[in-house]
Amino acid sequence: MISNLAQGVQAFTSNVFLVTGDRPVLVDTGANFDVVDAIRSRVDELEAVVLTHTHRDHVGNLGPVTNDFGIDAWGYDASIDGVDHAIADEERIQLGDHEYVALYTPGHKNDHLCFYSETAGVLFAGDLVFQNGSFGRTDLEEGDRGTLIESIDRVLERISPDLEEMHTGHGPSVSTNPYEHVELSAQMARQR
Question: Where are the residues of the annotated region Disordered (predicted)?
Answer without folding.
Answer: 166-192
